[in-house]
User: Which sequence fits this backbone?
């Protein structure tokens, strides 16, 4: 489809700063925006007033509510009753911890405890089932009560329904709860909103109280669990320690690793044997030395008197005392009686007998020394043998000590672990009853003296802003949803095609609106209405640059766009200018030309094409203007394709030769196919669109149907334009300035 569009023009500033400024100015045309707002002023006012009234009504009908606030602070300073480490440590002074505790205060579990503690399920504010019915509901409830059917719904509800109802109560409580941190401090504001001031304060305080209680319970539970676990673990470790100690002792007994004073018995035995062997060996040496000395003295000629043992022998000492007395007696007798005196002989025999006894005693002493040497040697040998056996046992013990040490280490580790758990158990047990909360209530909620909602002033201000916003939004939405075309700019911007002109609505430009539009063109040739058709004719003649335009097809996308009125008025205006003009009715179904001109010809276009009548016989003449009319006779509709025939081509060639302007009043494009056949035969197709009524998508659909026919679409003309309203719609359009130049025309 060839579309002539005069919109593209050279711009010396294209691509430069001037182009950017110009584009921005077009996009931010405040006058255009104000104009759009002005034409939608009624819509804006209606929507704004409705929203404002709704806000006022909601504010006045809203139940007054009161908000109480309790302040809770995370306490970083704590009393240290003992140095024992707590099972559940305190909260660190961290910003994220404060935010976490805010969420804990908002938790569903805490809200459920508040609901249960304060029995809020029985409160009608949070449980609608507890509210007393009013009006019709009260009457129905009374009737059910009389009939015995008035059991409370809660009593008939099953467990699932009861749980659902409980959850709804908790949701209602949470909805009225607001917990937030005060800036970057450790203080948390617990706000609760209620219809009763005292109730709001009680619930807010209860949230703070149960929050602190939950912290203490958490520590108490943690301490109890730790104590129970440690107790159970201690029982296990106690049995393990006993088992490990028993294993050590049994291994010692089995391997003869008994000990005394920290050392094994074998080591003590070896030590004793070493000492005894040393003493025995020393005794052997001593006895051998005494025996050897005694023998050496005897072998040197000694009688044994000088032997050490003889000197210390009491027997020998006694015998020597006796010998000394006998020797004195012998000496005395020898001097008195001589050697042969019986007493002398008797004394000498006594002396000899004593000497024999002394020698016998000396021999006995020597024999005793020899026996002692033997005994000492045997004792030393026995001790040495025992020592060797003890050393062998010690070697076996040392090999067994490796396993014993392992068992001992295991037993020591078990005992150490047991003692550490025992110590921790005692510490944990002492913590019971001294748990401290990690927070404290800085300020309890007081009964509020003023309502927190609704805030009348704020609501009215917000309502006003909302009303203005809704009004603006309605205007914007109406503009966005307005699919019609209002200005030449709309035509060129949305359809990318030239706008040939605008045909005003006669009642908007004429003082006498009782005259038909086709007659007004003749009666008021200098009026704005007539001038619109002259402008349209001028645009049509220049629809194809460099080529003459004689045959013009007037069409539209839908019926009711003003094709026939425009065709006749255009023809009359052209004829009044002295141009030879003919209007051909090509709408086989409607034959609107006949109705507008109020005539019923007997022959017409179809008869000419079929050869049943000549062109001269079918053409009628409009007496006021001289424009020729080629109508359609009554009841001449045919389903055959009459416009695609050679006869139609010959007729158009004949008309082109006879007339300066041939106007073909065609059927709408979307419902009828005739126009798509006829349009390529015309020099230009003039597409009509009703001002602000014809949807853009309908026009685009018609353009798509004409695109493949080869027709030349000369442009779009807007029809039935209300010039009074156009001053609000067509900023920048010629119709926008109609009030400025309407006096130029003769009405």
Assistant:
């Amino acid at each position: 489809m060839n579309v002539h569009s005069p919109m593209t023009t050279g711009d010396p500033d294209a691509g430069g700063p001037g182009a950017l400024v110009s584009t921005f100015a077009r996009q931010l045309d405040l006058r255009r925006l104000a104009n759009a707002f002005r034409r939608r002023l009624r819509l804006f006012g209606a929507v704004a007033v409705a929203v404002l009234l709704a806000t006022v009504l909601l504010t006045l009908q809203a139940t007054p509510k009161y908000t109480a606030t309790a302040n809770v602070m995370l306490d970083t300073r704590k009393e240290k009753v003992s140095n024992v480490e707590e099972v559940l440590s305190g909260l660190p002074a961290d910003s994220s911890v404060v935010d976490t505790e805010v969420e804990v205060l908002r938790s569903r579990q805490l809200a459920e405890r508040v609901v249960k503690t304060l029995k809020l399920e029985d409160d009608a504010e949070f449980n609608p089932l507890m509210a007393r019915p009013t009006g019709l509901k009260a009457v129905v409830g009374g009737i059910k009560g009389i009939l015995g059917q008035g059991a409370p719904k809660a009593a008939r509800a099953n467990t699932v329904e009861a749980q659902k109802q409980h959850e709804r109560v908790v949701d209602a409580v949470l909805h009225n709860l607001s917990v937030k941190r005060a800036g970057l401090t450790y203080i948390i504001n617990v706000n609760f909103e209620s219809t009763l001031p005292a109730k709001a304060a009680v619930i807010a305080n209860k949230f703070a109280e149960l929050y602190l209680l939950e912290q203490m319970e958490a520590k108490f539970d943690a301490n109890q669990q730790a104590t129970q676990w440690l107790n159970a673990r201690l029982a296990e470790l106690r049995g393990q320690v006993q088992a490990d100690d028993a294993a050590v002792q049994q291994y010692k007994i089995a391997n003869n690793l008994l000990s005394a004073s920290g050392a094994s018995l074998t080591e003590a035995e070896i030590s004793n044997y070493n000492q005894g062997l040393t003493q025995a060996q020393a005794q052997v040496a001593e006895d051998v030395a005494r025996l050897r000395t005694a023998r050496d003295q005897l072998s040197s000629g000694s009688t044994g008197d000088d032997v050490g043992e003889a000197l210390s022998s009491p027997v020998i000492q006694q015998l020597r005392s006796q010998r000394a007395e006998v020797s004195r007696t012998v000496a005395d007798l020898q001097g008195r009686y001589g050697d042969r005196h019986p007493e002398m002989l008797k004394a000498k025999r006594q002396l000899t007998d004593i000497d024999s006894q002394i020698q016998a005693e000396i021999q006995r002493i020597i024999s005793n020394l020899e026996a002692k040497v033997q005994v000492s040697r045997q004792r030393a040998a026995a001790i040495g043998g025992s020592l060797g056996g003890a050393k062998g046992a010690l070697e076996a013990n040392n090999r067994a000590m490796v396993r014993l040490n392992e068992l001992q280490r295991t037993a020591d580790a078990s005992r150490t672990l047991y003692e550490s758990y025992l110590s921790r158990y005692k510490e944990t047990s002492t913590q019971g009853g001294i748990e401290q909360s990690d927070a404290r209530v800085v300020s309890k909620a007081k009964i509020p003296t003023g309502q927190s909602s609704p805030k009348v002033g704020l609501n009215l201000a917000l309502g006003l802003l909302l009303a203005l916003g809704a009004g603006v939004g309605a205007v914007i939405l109406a503009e966005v949803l307005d699919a019609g075309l209002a200005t030449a700019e709309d035509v060129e911007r949305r359809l990318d095609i030239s706008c040939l002109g605008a045909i005003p609505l006669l009642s908007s430009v004429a003082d006498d609106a009782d005259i038909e539009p086709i007659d007004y063109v003749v009666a008021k040739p200098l009026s704005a209405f007539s001038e619109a058709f002259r402008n349209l004719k001028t645009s049509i003649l220049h629809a194809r640059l460099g080529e003459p335009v004689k045959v013009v097809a007037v069409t539209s996308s839908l019926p009711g766009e003003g094709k026939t009125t425009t065709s006749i008025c255009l023809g009359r205006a052209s004829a009044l200018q002295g141009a030879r003009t003919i209007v051909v009715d090509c709408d086989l179904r409607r034959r609107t030309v006949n109705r507008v001109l109020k005539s019923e010809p007997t022959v017409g276009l179809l008869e000419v094409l079929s050869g049943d009548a000549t062109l001269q016989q079918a053409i009628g003449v409009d007496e006021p203007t001289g424009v020729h009319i080629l109508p359609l006779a009554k009841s001449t509709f045919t389903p055959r394709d009459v416009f695609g025939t050679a006869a139609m081509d010959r007729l158009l060639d004949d008309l082109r030769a006879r007339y300066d302007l041939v106007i073909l009043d065609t059927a709408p494009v979307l419902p009828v196919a005739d126009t798509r056949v006829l349009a390529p035969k015309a020099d230009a197709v003039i597409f009509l669109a009703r001002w602000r009524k014809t949807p853009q998508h309908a026009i685009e659909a018609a353009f798509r149907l004409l695109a493949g026919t080869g027709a030349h679409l000369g442009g779009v003309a807007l029809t039935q334009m209300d010039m009074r309203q156009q001053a609000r719609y067509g900023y920048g359009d010629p119709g926008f300035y109609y009030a400025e130049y309407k006096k130029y025309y003769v009405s």
